[in-house]
Design a protein that fits this description.
Elongation Factor Tu (Ef-tu), domain 3, 10 helices, binds nicotinamide-adenine-dinucleotide, 300 residues, 2 domains, disordered N terminus, Rossmann fold, alpha/beta, binds FE2/S2 (inorganic) cluster
Length: 300
C-alpha cells in the first residue's frame, strides 16, 4: 500500500506539478495583520487535481526549507489554489514578505490522501485557529457530497477567527467559540461539540483540524458517543513523499507516514503524546534558525 502511494505521488511530480517556473502569487490578503495571511497561487496543474484534505509543500528560495501547507480552497476554472499560513518561524516570515506578482520557487502537490467523503447525513467539521482554513476545504467537500455540514470554529478572541463568512456561504450552521467570549460562546470548540452530540443523535462523523491539543480533545469528546472522528495531522515533514520518515506517527499501534498514509487518521487511534513530542523535537533549532539564520536570497 505504502509503495503504491509513493509511486502515485512521484507520478504526480512527473506530470509537471512541480513547475520549472516560480509559482506566481495572484492575490495576497492579510487575515490577521502580522500573523496570518492568505495567498491565492497560480497553480493550474495542482488546482485541476487537488481534493479536500490534500496539501502542498513549498520552497520559497534555493536555500529555503520545505513547508507543508494544507490547501484551503481551489478554483480549477481559474487555475488557482488558496493557502493560509500562520507566521510562525523563519520560512513563514519569508513568505510574509512576498507580494502579489512575486514568485514562490516551487510548489509541489497535490500531496497526501484526499478526505474520504461520501453522502452520510450530518457531519460536524471542527476548526481551531489557523486550522479553520484547512477545515474549510474539507467542509466544502462534505457539502458538495450532499451532507448537512455543521461547522464549529474557535479562536482565542474574535479578531483571530478565520473563514467565518466563507463557511457561512455553504454551511447551514456555523457555531463559534472564543476563549474570551468576545464572539459566540465563551469557551472551547469542544464545549459546543459536546453539547451538540448530547442533543443530536444524527451526527454521523466529526472532522477536526487545528492545534494538536484541540484534535486530541475532540477525539476525547466524541469517544463516549461512538461517533467516527477524523483528525488532520500537522507532523513535521521533509520530502512529503514517504521517503524520509520525518512525519512518522503511531496510529492504532502501527507506524504511519502522515504525508502518504494521511494526513487524516482515526482520532481514536492516534498516539497524540508521541505526536506532541515529535513536533517539539526541533524547537530549539527552529528558534535559533528564526533568530540567527540570514537567507542569502532575501537578505533578511
Ligand atoms: P489556538 O491554540 O489559539 O486554539 C484555537 C482554538 O482551538 C481555541 O480557541 C479552542 O477553541 C481550540 N482548542 C485549543 N486547544 C484546545 C484544547 N486543549 N481543548 C479544546 N479545544 C482547544 O490555535 P492557534 O494558535 O491559532 O493554532 C495554530 C496551531 O494550529 C498551530 O500549532 C498549527 O500547527 C496548527 N494547525 C494545524 C493544522 C492541521 O492540519 N492540523 C492546520 C493549520 C494549523
Ligand atoms: Fe518524509 Fe513523510 S515527510 S516520509
Amino acid at each position: 500500500m505504502l509503495r503504491e502511494n509513493r509511486v502515485a505521488v512521484l507520478h504526480t511530480f512527473s506530470q509537471g506539478e512541480r513547475s520549472a517556473m516560480p509559482t506566481r502569487i495572484v492575490k495576497k490578503e492579510s487575515l490577521i495583520p502580522g500573523q496570518t495571511s492568505k495567498l491565492v497561487l497560480d497553480a493550474p496543474h495542482i488546482a485541476a487535481k487537488a481534493k479536500p484534505g490534500n496539501f502542498v509543500i513549498l520552497r520559497i528560495c534555493e536555500k529555503g526549507e520545505r513547508v507543508p501547507l494544507t490547501i484551503a480552497d481551489t478554483d480549477p476554472h481559474n487555475g488557482t489554489i488558496t493557502i493560509v499560513y500562520l507566521v510562525l518561524g523563519k520560512s513563514t516570515a519569508l513568505l510574509e514578505q512576498l507580494r502579489e506578482g512575486d514568485g514562490i520557487l516551487d510548489v509541489c502537490g497535490p500531496l497526501g490522501r484526499e478526505t474520504h467523503i461520501e453522502k452520510k447525513g450530518t457531519v460536524i467539521c471542527v476548526g481551531g485557529g489557523t486550522g479553520i482554513a484547512a477545515m474549510h476545504h474539507i467542509a466544502k467537500g462534505h457539502h458538495r457530497a450532499g451532507n448537512h455540514v455543521v461547522a464549529i470554529i474557535g479562536a482565542r478572541n474574535k479578531d483571530l477567527l478565520l473563514f467565518e463568512k466563507e463557511l457561512s456561504s455553504f454551511c447551514p450552521e456555523v457555531l463559534v467559540s472564543t476563549d474570551d467570549g468576545s464572539a459566540g460562546v465563551k469557551g472551547l470548540v469542544t464545549d459546543i461539540l459536546k453539547e451538540r452530540l448530547e442533543n443530536d443523535a444524527a451526527v454521523k462523523e466529526v472532522v477536526a483540524v487545528g492545534p494538536v491539543p484541540m484534535m486530541e480533545a475532540v477525539a476525547r469528546t466524541t469517544k463516549p458517543f461512538g461517533v467516527p472522528t477524523v483528525v488532520s495531522l500537522n507532523s513535521i515533514m521533509v520530502d512529503g513523499i514517504g521517503m524520509c520518515g520525518a512525519c512518522r506517527v503511531t496510529v492504532g499501534g502501527e507506524t504511519k507516514f502522515t504525508c502518504v498514509d494521511g494526513p487524516e487518521f482515526d482520532g481514536q487511534l492516534v498516539d497524540f503524546k508521541e505526536l506532541r513530542q515529535r513536533l517539539a523535537a526541533f524547537r530549539n533549532q527552529e528558534h535559533i534558525s528564526n533568530e540567527e539564520h540570514k537567507c542569502r536570497c532575501h537578505n533578511v
